[in-house]
Amino acid sequence: MTLVQMHPRPTSANSVHRTAADAMDTAGPQVWDDMTVEVALSVMTAARTGHLVVCDEDGECTDLVTRARLTAVRDGVGYTDQVRLRDIADGGPFASPLTTVADAERTMRHRRLGVMPVVDEHGNALGVLSLSG
């Protein structure tokens, strides 16, 4: 797990002082990492969401998957209906509740992420940050 917690660099007064805890949305559906890609896509459709927080058997957040990522895996060469979320996990990045919004946005833009999970010191998903603009 890669927690993102960097030293703030001023970009604007608002984003420098706001933390991930201030800006996060609810985590949304959380699923186990042994779920297959097909079932995860069905859960997304039923929940009307574009992402799922993936947890291991201990309830620790291990990844966040998007519909686009799951669709790409499903449409990829060598895909079978036995591929599980743990098989495609990339493990991060994750934001700490104390990470500034500016730092989280920088990381998300660099990694080309639309959403990033916010986790506590025990790896529990607290919420998600969505990239603005």
Automatic annotation (TrEMBL):
Keywords: CBS domain. Transmembrane segments: none annotated. Residues 24-82, 88-133 form the CBS domain. InterPro entries: CBS_dom, CBS_dom_sf, Diverse_CBS-Domain. Gene3D superfamilies: CBS-domain. It holds the Pfam family CBS. PANTHER family: CBS DOMAIN-CONTAINING PROTEIN CBSX3, MITOCHONDRIAL (PTHR43080), REGULATORY PROTEIN (PTHR43080:SF26). This is CBS domain containing protein. It comes from Streptomyces resistomycificus. The lineage of its organism: Bacteria, Bacillati, Actinomycetota, Actinomycetes, Kitasatosporales.
